[in-house]
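tool=predict chain=A
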Amino acid sequence: MTQAAAAGSRPRVLFYVQHLLGIGHLARASHIVQALAENDFEVTLVTGGMPVAGFPADGIDHVALPPIAVGEGGFSQLVDADGHIVDDAFKANRRDRLLTAYHERKPHIVILEAFPFGRRQVRFELLPLIEAIEATTPRPFLLTSLRDILQERAKPGRDEETVALIDRHFDRVLVHGDPAFVRLEDTFPLTRSIADRIAYTGLVTGRPAAPPVERFDIVVSAGGGAVGAGLIDAALAASRHLTDLGRWCIIAGPNLPQSDFERFAAETPDHVELVRFRTDFRSLLTAARLSISQAGYNTVCDIQQAGCRSILVPFASGGETEQTARAERLQRMGLAVVLPENALSCDTMIAAIGRALDPADLPDVPVLQLDGANRTAELLRDLLNRRSTSQL
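tool=predict ok
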């Protein structure tokens, strides 16, 4: 019997997520939190990025730290909502608010999205949180929540530092992937050192989408939009030539610069709808013939759940490797056509669309595990059930 069961209350989970550039981390965390709530957990979601409409879902306890994002200097530079570089006082304020949320909620489980495999930029608040967890009696479980494919490390010693933190403080490493598709050791070379902590959940998707209110044959999406201008430009150019393919919806993303959005809007033909954001994106995929997108975790999961054909344009600038690794694996399985970011043009987009819509049957491929959110809830429940009342 767990402490929560003994007290007649639901087990409490504090889930921390920090998105800095796109919204993928926030979307995945929100799907997991929603599933936990539906599986009778009392959940608090702590966010630290710029607000995004629709996240988290209504009814979820939400603590929003003063938001930060990536500055012009890249991931090593953090800025506040007004674009000012954050200082020590700003960081201390965030740290204190996070610690207050922890002490007020008294969670049985704390989940940190990405850290210590990523999000080193916010260790100024996460290391104090970990210290507070270790000083708590009874101590809550501490877990990290990871996507299936990690960014390759450029700096020596980082992997060893990650392993040391896992060994010292973390009870589980939740890998939100299908081990038949990709395993953690494929992108994290020291996996063997923490093998006893790893639990695969399957890929995390949202609830099955309802049929869309309106139908588009081609759905183009650029994630958050901050780095998607090239994809939109090539798709828009192709749409002007491929008028026989039906209606197109091009979702530019909330972070696409306004000047780019206005330029694209001026060039949009009548059979194409250009929008910043669609709350029914997942529904649109269920009726689409083709999706054209980047290869972020959440978008790929949504495409696989919808079952439509896809062209993936993996984000690969600045040494990014994660999306390319995912896209190439899906292409080898016959589940996508890959168009490299540095090869984008009207002609290459038209050619990729032709390959993706080839009437030849898709190969017989294994179905990916897509119920990672509910499986996460099962793993947490099992973890709590293994601890006796006296230990809690």
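The chain has a mean pLDDT of 92. Residues 3-205+371-385 form a domain with the Rossmann fold fold (CATH 3.40.50.2000).
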